[in-house]
Every structure is written in structure tokens, then in C-alpha cells.
Amino acid sequence: MWAAMAIRMGYWDCPSCKHKRIDGPDAECPTCGQPREDDIEFYTDDDAAVVEDPELVRQARLGADWNCQYCGVDNKAGKVECQTCGAGPDGSKSREQRVIMDAPADSEAAPGPAGTAPSESGGKGGLLVVLAVLAVIGGLVWFFFMRTTDAKVTVTGSTWTKTLQVEKRTIEKKEAWADQVPSDAKIIKKKKKKRLKRVQDGTKKVKVGKKDLGNGMFEDVYEKRPNMVDKKVKDHWVSYEVIRWIQGKQMRSDAKDGAEPADLEFQASKKKRVGKRTSVLVVTVKTAEGTSHSYDVDLSKASDPAGKAKRYKKGQKFVAEINRMGKVLELK
Asked: Which of 41, 53, 57, 45 minimizes the C-alpha distance to 7?
């Protein structure tokens, strides 16, 4: 639930003479007399003065200024006639009111309108240096490791391997606080012990942002949040059992020169089950210079694995994309 608090002074910058941090409610620039236009953006900061003048506070709470549709001048909320031309507010557009959330404490705030953040050219320069160094490192990594070349190759052989990972059922016995026990665990025993635990102790108001009131002033916005404290409390210490499946033996079936190996069969039971299956064709190719490379073809999800394997029969020619590490990335 939102709770509105202190009113703070907002500011605007004159686009004509570049005068900075003019008080938000001021309708004209104090330097050049330029009227505050309806598209001028207000801004503020946490160090902005808290407005204590009762009349300014009253005006702030009346709402957003309205812009005269005839002469374009901003007028205070509550005014029934334009201060310049005398027209009424009917059909005129009020300034937008919006809530601006604070940035998280561990991240940098995004830069606001002119005048809200100090210029740190040194910081920007340092960032540019870091980016330049990263770009150079990235270029070197690409040149020495990721850069690829194309080479004509011939298939000299292949091995098709199927694997089946068997998983074994085990029961782990553990102890933990009740709120740390896995949902699929079986509770064996409980006992009460004292522990230091983070618990809620009422609520607290936390400043989470500010509201642009649309009249040159801002209002701090607070939110009620749980007030968490560390307390010694009595809690349940639990002994429990949980079922876990761990890797057992791996079954394997191989065949040479593109032939399909026998399917792996396994009878599941309460203590053993089928885990991951793989089906991979390892193709060996040789370049015109006599250099051998290997290329893995995943057949696990192929609709016609035998047909796909036949594409890589012995003597078949391809153009191989090879990186600087000698790994074949693709056979075209």
C-alpha cells in the first residue's frame, strides 16, 4: 500500500538561456523571462529541499498544472481562468502525474534530466578504456580460437554409438530444520531446538520513489514492508529420508562404418530405472593435406537415424568448417 509523505521542490531548466535548477512552481525563467513551456520536464533529487511553506504545500496537493489550449501558458490547479488570456480550463490538458521508482541500492541510478546528476567525464573515460580493452581481447580470442576456415574433406570412416544410462535408487538420511526439508522427503523424527531465525516483527515504511505532481513539486512515496529481525525461537529439528536417483553403469552399443548398432534394452525395477539415452555418429574426415578430424552427428532425435547416418558413408566428400582449435563445426 502506498503512503504519500514529504513534498520536495522540483526543478526545470530553461531551454532558451540554459539556466539550471529553476524552482518548479516558477512559471518564468528568472534570467531571461522565458515562460515555462508545457513540455518542460521537471526533476528532483533526494537532496532537494523539503517544502514547508503551507501555501506551497497546499498548492502541491491541489494537483497538476493545466495548460491553456488557447495561449499555451501553464496555470496552477484550482485556477478557473488562464492568468494570461482569461480562458477557462475546459478542454485544456493537465500535466501528467507519475511515480518514479528508486533504483535498487546495489545498482547505479540511471541518469536523469539535465542537472540531476554530476558530470563525471573521468568515469566515462574509464568505461571507454575498459570497453576498448574488452574489444581487443574479444578480437584476439576470435582470431586465435574462434575464427574458422573451410576445407574440402573426405569421410574415411564412422562409428555409431548408442548409450543408455542406468540410474540407481538410493535413500539418503539427513537432518535439517523443518523449513529446509525437501517437499518429497519422508519425516522420520522431530524435536524442538532453539535457533536464530529471521522473523517478521511488525512493519516499517521504506522510501521507494517519488511522485511527480505535475506542478513543479514532488512527493516522497513510501511503502509498508515487513520488518525482518533475527530472533532466537523454538523450531523443529527434523530427521528425514529422501529418495534420490544416482548414476549407475552405462550400457553401450557400437557399430562401425555407419551401420546401426543394436538397441539397448533394460528391465526397469523399483531400484533401477532407465536414465538418459544417446545416439551419436562420430564421423572421421581427412583433408587433402592428410589431416584427420572428427565430427559428431546427434541422431537421438532424428526421425530417420539410419537414413541420416547414410549421408556420411565412407568416401563421401564435404566442405568442412573448421575452427582454429581443429574442431569441425559443420559438414556442408
From this structure: 57
